């Protein structure tokens, strides 16, 4: 009796959904854009049309890279080994990658902040 229960627990444990900051392809809030990696290179598409293929990005797909869209339609990337945060935003000239420094202004209500859930959970001690 214990063996079927063990098999069931192993199957259920392996079927957990990926956290939101690791889902690929990932749709923007309005679902107009899709983020993915193509051979490790970050890509943003609209339908079948590639709007951005960032060959010069300082990161590639990796288990320690996390991504998430914010409510404003910006795509945020957190690179854990470097503790670096980037974001892509749509401009009249197309999508642009920016470095987020975390600096605060005198008007905090205007400060740009990463979306909740971008960072991975802190490791727990056993």
From TrEMBL:
<keyword id="KW-0732">Signal</keyword>
<feature type="compositionally biased region" description="Pro residues">
    <location>
        <begin position="113"/>
        <end position="126"/>
    </location>
</feature>
<protein>
    <recommendedName>
        <fullName>Lipoprotein</fullName>
    </recommendedName>
</protein>
<feature type="signal peptide">
    <location>
        <begin position="1"/>
        <end position="20"/>
    </location>
</feature>
<feature type="region of interest" description="Disordered">
    <location>
        <begin position="103"/>
        <end position="126"/>
    </location>
</feature>
<feature type="compositionally biased region" description="Basic and acidic residues">
    <location>
        <begin position="103"/>
        <end position="112"/>
    </location>
</feature>
